[in-house]
Write a structure and sequence with these properties.
This protein has 5 helices and no strands. The chain is an all-alpha fold. The protein is rod-shaped, with a radius of gyration of 43 Å. It starts with a helix and ends with a helix.
Length: 162
């Protein structure tokens, strides 16, 4: 009788082992959409989105978690594919927002540089104009003095000639 129970236990254990193997082999691999969503989120997480678009990255993470849950519950349902597609797009949006914010920072820096350069050039031009006005005033005084001397010389010459 003990031998019979021992054989039964072995058969039950073997049946459970085979059942576990069938369940493991029969598990559905993740669909392409879910794999793409995982990859997109990973790229966004490793890129600039982690620093420049953390809110959007968190939204992408939540969308991916919903897709993973749907896959765990209903691996072959359309809802799983739809949620995976949404998760991928959210990750791509996080990357795009990070790229826009990075470009805005570059543009802002370029504008500051341009503004500073323009103000420096304007100040330099004003100095040159001021200097030019001083030179012009000095030349005007020199011309007036030369005209006065010429007039005096002509008057003196006219007196001598008379």
């Amino acid at each position: 009788m003990a031998l019979l129970n021992d054989v039964r236990i072995r058969w039950v254990a073997l049946a459970l082992l085979l059942l576990a193997a069938l369940v493991a082999c029969g598990s559905t691999p993740p669909p392409k959409e879910l794999r793409d969503a995982r990859a997109a989120y990973e790229r966004a997480q490793q890129g600039a989105a982690a620093k420049l678009a953390p809110a959007e990255l968190d939204t992408a993470k939540q969308a991916l978690e919903r897709a993973e849950e749907a896959f765990g519950e209903e691996p072959e349902e359309q809802r799983t594919l739809d949620l995976a597609y949404i998760a991928e797009r959210r990750a791509m949006l996080a990357e795009a927002r990070a790229d826009v914010r990075h470009a805005d920072r570059i543009r802002s820096g370029a504008e500051k540089t341009y503004k500073n350069a323009t103000e420096e050039e304007l100040a330099k031009a004003r100095e040159e104009l001021k200097s030019g006005k001083k030179e012009l005033a000095a030349e005007r005084r020199a011309r007036q003095e030369a005209e006065r001397r010429a007039r005096l010389a002509m008057e003196s010459l006219a007196k001598v000639a008379a």
